[in-house]
Amino acid sequence: MTKRMILPLLFGLIGCGILVSLGTWQVKRLAWKEATLSEIDARISAEPVALPVSFDREGDLYLPVEATGSFGADRIRVLVSQKKVGAGYRIISPFTTQGRTIMVDRGVIPIADDLPATPQGEVTVTGNLHWPNEVDSYTPEPDEARDIWFARDVDRMAAKLGTEPVLLILRAATPATLEITPLPVSRAGIPNDHLSYAITWFSLAGIWFGMTVFLLWRIRQRTV
């Protein structure tokens, strides 16, 4: 090995080492994310419990709840788009149970449909507590004139409807409102891209190694 090959070799080895370590880190993150998603699945599908007296947004996230009460006449429409279905409105309604009022995400109706009548009498709802993080700097303000919201902002919706800042995502209701299709909470919207990231880093490491070998070969050919 000539002195001219030492620096490219070191550069190549260090670069490969960094890229392989990044790929290995993503593999570890993949294992962590899959374990987390399994825990979320188990929590979502657990047996429902009564509505907690107080709420912890982290500790009660996805908590299955069953409650009996009545829906209020007011509601909020949130624009939503579903794959292979198209645009629709989520219907968020106040729900009073045992002297307390929370919000229930009852599901979605097609954008062209009229709003169904508010259910009369007692309704038993089953679903999961959720505090969606859907609002960012690009989210438009609610269109008050057309009664359309563009994200589920729990605190702001609660202020609008006069409820506690709690949202229950409906899984089932008895009796059901047939015009509204529930959109139960699931892990579908939680990204898990660590495998593709790992493949990318390992692929770059392979390319880096190949380029290093080629460069060393070129240097050796010039010195022969």
TrEMBL record:
Q: Under the cellular component aspect of Gene Ontology, which terms does the record hold?
A: plasma membrane
The transmembrane segments are: 195-217
The record's comment on protein family reads: Belongs to the SURF1 family.
Q: Give the protein's recorded name.
A: SURF1-like protein
Quote the InterPro entries the UniProt record gives. Surf1/Shy1, Surf1/Surf4
Tell me where in or outside the cell this protein is found.
Cell membrane; Membrane
**PROSITE patterns given in the database record:** PROKAR_LIPOPROTEIN (PS51257), SURF1 (PS50895)
* Principal location listed in the UniProt entry: membrane
Alphabetical UniProt keywords: Cell membrane, Membrane, Transmembrane, Transmembrane helix
Question: How does this protein sit in the membrane?
Answer: Multi-pass membrane protein
